[in-house]
Amino acid sequence: MRVRVLAGVALLTTLTLAAGPATAAAPTASGHAPSADAGLRAFADRAGLRVGTAVDMAALAGDPAYRTAVAHEFSTVTAENVMKWESTEPQRGVHDWAAADRLVDFARAHRQLVRGHTLVWHNQNPAWVNEQDLTPAQLRAALRRHIVDEVSHFRGRVWHWDVVNEIFNDDGTWRDTIWLRNLGPGYVADAFRWAHQADPRATLFLNDYNNEGLNAKTDAYYALVKQLRAAGVPVQGYGVQGHLAVQYGVPGDVLTNLRRFEQLGLRTAFTEVDVRMPLPADPIKVQAQAQGFTTLLQACLLADRCVSYTLWGFTDRYSWVPGVFDGEGSATPFDENLAPKPAYAALRDTLALAGR
Ligand code: G3I
Fold first, then answer.
1. Distance (Å, rounded) from C-alpha 81 to C-alpha 117?
2. Catalytic residue among 80, 150, 212, 272
3. Residue 258: what pLDDT?
4. Could you tell me if residue 154 is inside a domain?
5. Residue 311 clears pLDDT 80, i.e. is over it
6. One of 166, 262, 328, 336 is an active-site residue; which one?
7. What band does 2 get if pLDDT is binned at 50, 70 and 90?
8. At 35, which CATH number?
9. DSSP state letters, 148-188
10. C-alpha of residue 242 to centroid of ligand 1, in Å
């Protein structure tokens, strides 16, 4: 779709660029571009991309301005926490889908797709999932049950699943988790097969952080995906979380990395983008932040099969960052008062250029 749009308006793009810097409101071949306040999703639609956010369910219920912005700005949503195993099955065999169902219903009402996050992780598992009480065989059965139950519950209503999350260390070795220790690395292939059986139409992703560019971790993913695809395992997407920090910059080879996974037959997606900074903010950090957001967005728009770009929260009012990184924050495109920062305009204008 994106390719078709771009090819169709090549001449117009040339004219627009010659006329000076683009603004969000410039006309396009198929009429007029969305007005500057139309929301990111309007611009993303024209660019053939889905744009999303992680959603904090307490905020969605209790903060009308937050709720309005989620609906207005985004064409996909991801549950920040409520689809994780500790939320969906707090006690063995006792499911609680209520919060996750509310998100899926919200998405449907606002014509949004849902990214399911996440089925297999080393964090936020229920307390009853532990190595003291369960044997390896019981852990395997519990994991299978969990995946089949959750994917079946949302069958037909979840677009992408982050099937396995953060399975490698930054040096490319396997992360030491309850799953690796008890099931061995074959748990990854099993998880994809079980998820695929439960919903053959959902697109199934690997997902991680520090996997934007070429490095030891992404080499490990590349080797694993090759092996899984050769074995017929239904791994279909490579998710790049995109948790950046202005003090560390952005790798220069993001597009090259996306392309090598696309060449293995995968779709790609940015799944959790934010760009934190040491506080207090200043104009250079704010500018670097805008560049961080747009560098990843540009890579997605330049790639052939990058299908979505998701923010890990869109407002500093609810961001996870200050609670985890001491002295850092301001990581999202909207401040605590839901006022847009320069990063917001940068994202919107990049999408506007791609949609011409
Ligand atoms: O639900 C409890 C609540 O009952 C309790 O009173 C409160 C007290 O601390 O904690 C609440 O749980 C918190 C949970 O979020 C829900 O709000 C946890 O403490 C807190 O640790 C947890 O943090 C989440 C984190 O994953 C856990 O690892 C963040 O919100 C969430 O943004 C973050 O998301 C992850 C992605 O899933 C994977 N990639 C990295 C990303 C950022 O860490």
1. 8
2. 272
3. 98
4. yes
5. yes
6. 166
7. low
8. 3.20.20.80
9. HHHHHHTTTT-SEEEEEE--B-TTSSBP--HHHHHH-TTHH
10. 18
Name which residue sits closest to atom 28 of ligand 1, judged by CA.
123
- Kindly report the length of the chain: 356
Residue 272 appears among annotated catalytic residues: yes
Q: What pLDDT band is residue 283 in, cutting at 50, 70 and 90?
A: very high
Residue 50: count of CB within 10 angstroms of its CB: 21
pTM of the full structure: 0.92
Report the number of distinct structural domains present in the chain.
Answer: 1
Ligand 1: lining residues by beta carbon, under 6 Å: 80-81, 123-124, 165, 241, 272, 320
Nearest atom in ligand 1 to the alpha carbon of residue 313 is 32
Least confident stretch, 29-38, 59-68, 168-177, 190-199: 29-38
- Indicate whether 57 belongs to any domain: yes
Chain segment 179-210, per-residue pLDDT in tens: 999 999 999 999 999 999 999 999 999 999 99
Question: Is residue 3 a part of any domain in this protein?
Answer: no
Supply the pLDDT for residue 28.
43
Asked if residue 45 has pLDDT above 70, the reply is: yes
Q: How many CB atoms lie within 10 A of CB 249?
A: 12
Task: State the closest ligand 1 atom to the C-alpha of 54, by its place in the atom list counted from 1.
Answer: 32
Q: Are 287 and 342 spatial neighbours (Cβ–Cβ below 8 Å)?
A: yes
Summarize pLDDT for 146-156 with one digit per residue, the tens: 999 999 999 99
For residue 193, give both structure tokens.
Answer: 């097969």
For residue 95, the enclosing domain spans 9-354
Instruction: Please report whether residue 72 resides in a domain.
Output: yes
Q: Which atom of ligand 1 is nearest to the CA of 84?
A: 37
